[in-house]
Amino acid sequence: MKHLIPLTTVVLAVFLVGGCTCNCKRSVPLPPDNEEVIIEEVIIYEYKTPEEISQSQEANQTAHPVIGEPAQQQPGDEKKQDFTPAFSLTPSTITPKGKAEESSKETVTEAADQNIPKSYIRDGRHFHPWVGRKFIKNGQELHPALWSNEKMKFGVHYGFVRAGTAHISTKGVVETDFGPAYVIETLANSAKVIDSVFKVRDINYSWIEVNGNSSFGYSQSLREGRYVRDEWITFDAKNKIFSGVMKKKGDPKFIKGELPGEVHDMLSSLYFVRAQDFSKGKDFIFDVANREKVYPLVVKFVKKETVKVPAGKFNCIVVEPQFRGEGIFIQQGKSLKVWITDDERRIPVKMETEVFIGNVSASLEEYSKN
């Protein structure tokens, strides 16, 4: 796998405004805080056997394209994208909680527990199959962590201008293909004053191993201006492979490749940093993966200081990720600083960086741990 975008740029992209801070055009808006949070309609992926695929294709000639190994082309078919069904990615519908129709598909009924604000998903999105998995009862109590039952709200600013809001929450624990994992969700939206120019409505998920040592996978759904991208990746550290789906325009693209071993995604990396011991002022390094790339990231201890944000005044540890060359969002020589509370909670209370368009910061406005 090739080298990736520096993690800190990624953390800002996902954690602050959910995606990109470059000059690309992107689109969609976030509901007001008092809007009812329910599921309207979502597209998830469901695996099917070749036999089921054949039956489905006979019943519906317009079925979702099948992803797999290329079939033998016939003369004159050079321009057709035809595939032999190794497996199929077919859309399933999740209806609002309490209004779900009876269905034999377990993933559909279980997914009703995933309460995404409907204004985020009314345009239809593609999520990781794990988004539809039911939470383990008392999972956060069975697997206690720094981030158990946690909810955070951040205000995002470009200079002195309020650019948007990011909500980060621990949704629960689910059983993945590789064991139990915490589900971390981020919802990012641009402010009303920005919406007319550059609407942002992003949803990101990360499935973090319950001990916090690695990520099992992530799901990213971006609606930023005219830019639309949905992708999800599963990390199989044991077999050192990854696989997933990427969709921008048109049909989804199946992607796969090799891993060096355990890795973190853009979102889980923030949680991994929180769990580290900075008491001795020690730096550390770990691998971060995004899409088809891996990047070894060094996180440097800078200092301790007191910082005031809307949520209060905190004694913090300041850390600074180190880059190897120029990143996509951060210019060479520029840096990102992260303020983490110097206590057992290790709450991220502030992030600040310089990007091509100026200074970007995110400050903690609300925090709860139920």
Automatic annotation (TrEMBL):
InterPro entries linked to this entry: DUF3108
Name assigned to this protein: DUF3108 domain-containing protein
Pfam families according to UniProt: DUF3108
Bias kind Basic and acidic residues: ranges: 98-108
Taxonomic placement: Bacteria, Pseudomonadati, Elusimicrobiota, Elusimicrobia, Elusimicrobiales
Region (Disordered) residue spans: 68-114
